[in-house]
Amino acid sequence: MLKFRIYAITVVLFGEFIMPSYASDPNYDESKVPEYTLPDSLVMRNGERVHSSEMWTQKRRPEILHLFREEMFGKTPKYQQNTMDSEIVEMKENTLNGKAHRLQIRLYPIKNNHSFPITILAYIPQNTSEKVPAFFALNFKGNQAVTTDNEVIPSISMGYDPKFKGKPQEEILRELTEHRGETASRWPIEMILDRGYAFVTACYYDIDPDFNDGFQNGVHPDFYVPGQTQPAPDEWGSIAAWAWGLSRILDYFEGAEKGEGELTHRIDPQKVAVFGHSRLGKAALWAGASEERFVLVISNNSGCGGAALSKRAFGETVGRINTAFPHWFCENFKKYNENESALPFDQHELIALIAPRPVYIASALEDQWADPKGEFLAAQYASPVYELLGTDGFAGTAEMPEPNHPVGGTIHYHIRTGKHDVTPYDWRQYLDFADKYLKP
Q1: Among the options 86, 238, 278, 302, which is catalytic?
Q2: DSSP bridge partners of 17
Q3: 77 CB neighbour count, 10 Å cutoff
Q4: How large is the C-alpha radius of gyration of the chain?
Q5: Is residue 278 flagged as an active site residue?
Q6: pTM of the model
Q7: pLDDT at 261
Q8: pLDDT for 429
Q9: What is the pLDDT of residue 14?
């Protein structure tokens, strides 16, 4: 197994993708991947083999889920559903060239606490009165950045970004507005609407600002017990918080379906796909694994801590990710820095926790930092659980496909040409995949 000794860290920013550089270079050589043994998802920790779907559901799945909660993502606090506050800020028809109803909603997950709202932006197809399936996705730079729509409210939570430190709120709002539509190329909203899906998004900073502040901002302090100043070693980090936020948005639309909000009932909460890119791909996978109400899960370039096998120690490793982003996972996960062989699980089991619900894993050819082969192998090794539960799993896929040639069944995979990004090609595959499972 490769050992890395970390002497210094430099952080280089490429949009939301931050690649730390170390004194020792990351491994991109398959011949230097250490020998590793993956845990068998269908063997209990006591050695007993899982032989039925009931045994998986009642025994093995809870065992694996517990390990991920205790040792990686951290446990989230108990939450009483339907105890939130909300207000519809705006409803407007005939937006986006007449294609959509636009909704903007303030969601306050902690009842009677309005200090840290989640601002939801939703576009719902204009041309139907039927309930529609939806894609839920967190975004990196605020709702105003996903579209050139001038009436989308800027996500003021971005003011927590260290680059805005010391600036007055008026200047922050001006800068956010100047960058309206900055990431619109990643969000082909009109394409999504044309295919009959709603699009629902919120800024991940609304849930927990993405920097290491000792968990003093965001949602974590709302759940501290008296005397507590940060999560315990087995309690939630930022990725688990972002996943938690996705669940609260789903809570809202479930409540709306019961008549608690105009137009919001047009989104079918039983047909929601959760999508995420990069670190938010990790959050989408954890949301899908820990929240069974999400009926389809999409991970785009999620890499280490997401879909890529950790034990390969290829590209980004556990030690590198925990050092560069110490707030993402629970403190217990740091035990496996440069010690991946000791992990009692690996990421194929994170995918297996989603079974039998459909999952799509996607890589990019030039994104070796995220270990495309490790993502492919995790999809492959998750397949036995899917097959046990009566699906076609990875549909017998044995070899990594050529770029731009999707493969698989209920577990789907592609590697496309290009870099760490989300492209129209990716979205066309996701929409085709969703059509199979979310449309009549």
Answers
A1: 278
A2: 14
A3: 14
A4: 21
A5: yes
A6: 0.93
A7: 54
A8: 98
A9: 35
With contact defined as beta carbons under 8 Å apart, do 359 and 385 qualify?
no
Q: Is the pLDDT of residue 9 over 70?
A: no
Residues in contact with 338: Cβ distance below 8 Å, sequence separation at least 6, in sequence order: 3, 4, 317, 318, 319
Catalytic residue check, 310 = no
Tell me the C-alpha distance between 201 and 246, whole Å.
9
Distances (CA, A) of 53 to 331, 384, 396: 33, 11, 20
How far apart (Å, rounded) are the C-alpha atoms in residues 162 and 227?
Answer: 27
The CA–CA distances, whole Å, from 256 to 25, 72, 265 equal 50, 33, 5
Q: Mind listing the pLDDT tens digit for each residue in 298-308?
A: 999 999 999 99
Q: CA-to-CA distance for 264 and 252, rounded, in angstroms?
A: 9
What does the H/E/C string look like for 40-81?
CCCECCCCCECCCHHHHHHHHHHHHHHHHHHHHHCECCCCCC
> Which pLDDT value is given to residue 259?
53
Q: Which helix (H) or strand (E) holds 426?
A: helix 424-438
The two structure tokens encoding residue 397: 């896929």
